[in-house]
Structure formats: structure tokens, C-alpha cells
Amino acid sequence: MEDILQQILGELKEIKEGQTRIEKKLDSVHDNTAKITGNITETNMKIDKISDDVDFLKHKEHQTEEDLFKLKKNLQIIK
């Protein structure tokens, strides 16, 4: 009877140690997930900024093309 009790207590100890290892791994996964989420958020913000910059450059290019067209048109009138 005593041997069975010791065996059960030994197995219970192993289960608790296994649970502790699993909890540590889970904490590590949670921390890494938080870091990755932060990196994704930062990356998305940078992509949004780049997208805005590209849109602005396209707008400025269009304005420049219009200005060039008007200048060329005025030059033709003067000639």
C-alpha cells in the first residue's frame, strides 16, 4: 500500500513538473506572440506611410505633367 502511495506521489510530482515546463513554454509563446504583433503593427504603419508617400508623389507628378503641358502650349502660342 505504501509503495502504491509513493508511486502515485512520484507520478503526481512528474505531472506537476511537466505542467510547469508547459506553462513556461506557453509564457514564452505568449511573449513572442506579443513581440510579433508589435512588429506587425509597426510594419503596417510604415507601409501605410510609404503608401501615402507614393500617392503624394503620383499627385505631384501629375501636377508637374500638367504644368509642363501648359508651358509647352504657351510656348507654341508665342511662336
Structure overview:
The chain is an all-alpha fold and 79 residues long. Helices cover 97% and strands 0% of the residues. It contains one helix and no strands. It has one helix spanning 2-78. The protein is rod-shaped, with a radius of gyration of 34 Å.
How are the SSEs ordered, and which strands pair?
Elements: H1 2-78
Tally the helices: what do you get? Answer: 1
How many beta-strand elements? 0
Radius of gyration: 34 Å
Overall outline: rod-shaped
**Would you tell me the overall average pLDDT?**
96
Low-confidence stretches: none
Order of helices and strands: H
Portion of residues in beta strands equals under 5%
The oligomeric state is single chain
Overall structural class, as computed from helix and strand content, comes to mainly alpha
Main sheet characteristics: none
Organism: Clostridium thailandense
Protein name: t-SNARE coiled-coil homology domain-containing protein
